[in-house]
């Protein structure tokens, strides 16, 4: 597709990483440090965030989405500090699917994705094509004119993914995107992730170890707001032995690193 070049396209990319965190700390509520000294460097590819409930995955993703400001350390997104006052230019290049995303039940699929494109300040002339492509990519073309309230939970999740990718983001943040998808949808979703990861920095949080094995180039395993392990899925699998609980090598690696019953969890 041919489109007019935007200033962002012409600006030289002078940063080494799309997402770069050093000693990142993010406070939630009054004094809970849900992310507590985290180092990350992500470029193009699919980066899985794994960890037990309460590990800090959602808090980290919210910080990467610029919803939460860092409390300490440094976070650079597309070469810009996340502590900068005006983050609009960065936000235009980010796609974000929150864990619980709010939507308007009376909107049609097309209307909702269009509305989100508009909120992302996409040029009006680009919106119709971009919406069509995003809806097609999540396999909902036939339902584009249907109201969201008539869709199944899995389909709504796909609409959430469509709104996240409508602006062709450079950084795509997906918080538990496979929740509510049936096995066939999950397989298609993993294919889509791999395709997106060829030219986008995708950060995906999940509690499904199989998602990571099937679709991620590397894994960051978190517990108590810190990184417990970083490496590729094969290295995660290699961390476990037959003694460790789990149905697959990668699950055994996960158990080995977190200890029995997820010792690393906040429980
Ligand atoms: N607004 C808040 N006020 C107080 N504590 C919070 C708040 N938000 C999150 N927390 C706590 O911070 C910790 C990290 O939460 P977070 O949601 O980031 O974890 P998570 O890894 O995404 O977990 P899950 O897999 O359950 O979604 C948890 O112990 C959680 O209870």
TrEMBL record:
State the Gene Ontology terms under molecular function.
ATP binding; ATP hydrolysis activity
Q: Does the keyword Nucleotide-binding apply?
A: yes
Q: Which UniProt keywords apply?
A: ATP-binding, Nucleotide-binding, Transport
Q: Which Pfam families match?
A: ABC_tran
Top-rank taxon? Bacteria
Domain ABC transporter, first and last residues per copy: 19-249
Coiled-coil residues are: none
Give yes or no: UniProt keyword Transferase.
no
For this protein, the parts annotated as crossing the membrane are none
Q: Which family does it belong to?
A: Belongs to the ABC transporter superfamily.
Q: What name does the UniProt record give this protein?
A: ABC transporter ATP-binding protein
Can you name the source organism? Answer: Virgisporangium aliadipatigenens
Its lineage reads: Bacteria, Bacillati, Actinomycetota, Actinomycetes, Micromonosporales
């Amino acid at each position: 597709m041919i489109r007019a070049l935007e200033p962002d396209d012409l600006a030289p990319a002078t940063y080494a990483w799309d997402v770069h965190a050093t000693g990142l700390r993010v406070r939630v509520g009054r004094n809970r440090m849900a992310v507590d000294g985290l180092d990350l460097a992500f470029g193009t590819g699919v980066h899985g965030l794994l960890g037990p409930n309460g590990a800090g995955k959602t808090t980290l993703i919210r910080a990467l989405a610029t919803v939460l400001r860092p409390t300490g350390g440094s976070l650079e997104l597309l070469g810009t500090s996340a502590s900068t006052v005006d983050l609009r230019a960065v936000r235009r290049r980010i796609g974000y699917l929150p864990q619980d995303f709010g939507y308007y039940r009376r909107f049609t699929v097309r209307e909702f994705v269009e509305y989100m494109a508009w909120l992302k300040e996409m040029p009006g002339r680009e919106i119709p094509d971009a919406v069509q492509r995003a809806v097609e990519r999540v396999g909902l073309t036939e339902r584009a004119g249907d109201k969201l309230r008539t869709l199944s939970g899995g389909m709504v999740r796909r609409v959430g993914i469509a709104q996240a990718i409508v602006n062709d983001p450079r950084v795509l943040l997906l918080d538990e995107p496979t929740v509510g998808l049936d096995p066939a949808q999950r397989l298609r979703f993993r294919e889509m992730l791999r395709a997106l990861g060829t030219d986008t920095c995708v950060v995906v949080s999940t509690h499904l170890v199989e998602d990571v094995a099937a679709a991620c180039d590397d894994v960051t395993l978190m517990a108590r707001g810190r990184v417990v392990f970083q490496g590729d899925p094969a290295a995660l699998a290699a961390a476990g032995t037959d003694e460790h609980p789990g149905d697959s090598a990668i699950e055994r690696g996960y158990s080995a690193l977190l200890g029995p019953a997820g010792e690393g969890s906040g429980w």
